[in-house]
Design goal:
Mean pLDDT: 84
Keywords: Cytoplasm, Repeat, WD repeat
Main location: cytoplasm
Structural class: alpha+beta
Radius of gyration: 32 Å
Strand order of the largest sheet: 28-29-30-3-31
Pfam families: LisH_WDR26 (PF23627), WD40 (PF00400)
Strand content: 25-35%
Organism: Triticum aestivum
Shape: elongated
Subunit structure: Interacts with RANBPM.
Helix content: 10-25%
Low-confidence stretches: 1-47, 570-590
Number of helices: 11
Largest sheet: 5 strands, mixed
Length: 597
Amino acid sequence: MGGFEDDEPPSKRARASSVESANLPESFCYSKSINPLGGTMARPLASQGKEVMVGSKGVIKRDEFVRIITKALYTLGYEKSGAVLEEESGITLHSPSVNLFRKQVLDGNWDNAVATLNKLGLLDENIVKSAALLLLEQKFFDLLRNDNLMGAIKTLQNEISPLGVNRKRVHEMSSCIISSPQNFLLAFPKLGTEASDSRLKLLEELQKVLPPAVMVPERRLENIVEQALTVQREACYLHNSIDGLSLYVDHHCGRDQIPSRTLQVLREHGDEVWFLQFSNNGKYLASSSNDKSAIIWKVDEDVELLLKHRLTGHEKPVMMVAWSPDDSQLLTCGMEEAIRRWNIESGECIHVYEKPGLGLTSCGWFPDGKQILCGLSDQSLCLWDLDGKEADCWKGQRSSKISDFSVTKDGKVIIIMNRDSTILLFNRDTKQERLIEEDNTITSFSLSDDGDFLLVNLISEKIHLWNIRNDPSRVKQYIGHKRSRFVIRSCFGGSDQAFIASGSEDSKVYIWHRATEDVIETLSGHSGAVNCVSWNPTNPHMLASASDDHTIRIWGVKKASTKRKDIGSSSSSNGTHMNGSANGNGFVHQCNGSRSK
């Protein structure tokens, strides 16, 4: 389930104890009955309030339950409410000794804090020594901060060393005495913080060491609630919700959360649509076609796609597109022709990349957005600066006609086809090479957002999921779609990329549950092979598919109020008609960018 960050402002954490209850106004009376609803509904039943255990299952200890609620109230800044709860329930958040201990820590009264620690009745001597080390370490730092070197030495020799715990830490503190101030500030960053901030952090560290019955951990109620919600989400087989999980009801997603209804048909392309991809921010969709053009579509506020720019200038069919990391630019690659770089806002061509005597077969961005990767017809892969200067090139490593490649987000691993049935994972830093070896010819592949998994499409009508975090291992297989002649592309998608989608030569879109391998939806509507699919990375309810029937379909959830809209010159519906001319909302742009050879 992972850890949970404590991002509560320090000023609130400092007040999150019953120490402050003594500072409430005298006019605030604890004993007064408070009913925020103004009636009897808020009052407990006569049988409630005294049981040791609470809840329908009888597994929750009443005193612990009340204490973590009290802690949550103080943490949220509701000090009066926290104090009232302590008074009315008779269950205090902390004992008087612990309250005194916390106050001594916040005041920097280290000697008395150590003395109080030893009076808390802790049975585990190791816990006492570990907590004492934290206190005396802070005392040591305060003495150094105040230039009291002799005091720091005495504290180290007479108080810290005799504890006999964490020798490595003690040696590090010893080095502070003989090091320059700059060196030990690097070794102990807390020395560079304000005393009040360092003491608040010390309290947090002490809460991790001391038993929770002594000091209730920070944000414990929030953690329990988050864990419960996480369990519900993980148990939700079809989890694909846009809205956050509610505390009011148990979480459950039905099939209506899977994008399976055609919301729009985009008909602006004049020939087969081969490739499409949503932008990283999910605000745009780019498509490329056998009609030698690419189109940029904008996702508007009503979650409808409108033609933004038609990009023309390629002399051959446009094989693929690639978004820059910041979504401000787009690469388009012609079929063994040239790569063009476009400005998304203006639709103008910024640069043309060519290689004399060779055709370019694929394109992609390096994660820093300052370089691009290009596959060439001689089966080499080149890294170019944006101005077209070659920065690196890998030649002779590939024997496959498939030009797909990916780069992990840290830029360290380049994933390329090596042979017809082999994918090479090449680490640029270590020069390490790892291989994914399949029994059948690979037709395409795609990388997960976290960079740990690779989705591999095979000529055998199978899709394999590989874990590539360490040594590559095949973990899942998806079957059901059809492929006999064309390159069919698949993708990860949905909430937490919990689903797999793929095109198919039977004119359908297939959706699998990633973990179980089950086909959960088969989407019909296209009249030609579906070549490529793309799931909106920021909207799990939006899926796009590109087909040989010259159209793009936008799939969404089943909402009765949503009307399907066809966009394009061949539209026969009452949807928005986009003709791609300068007089409409779409604009045609002829490439006039500078050329690199």
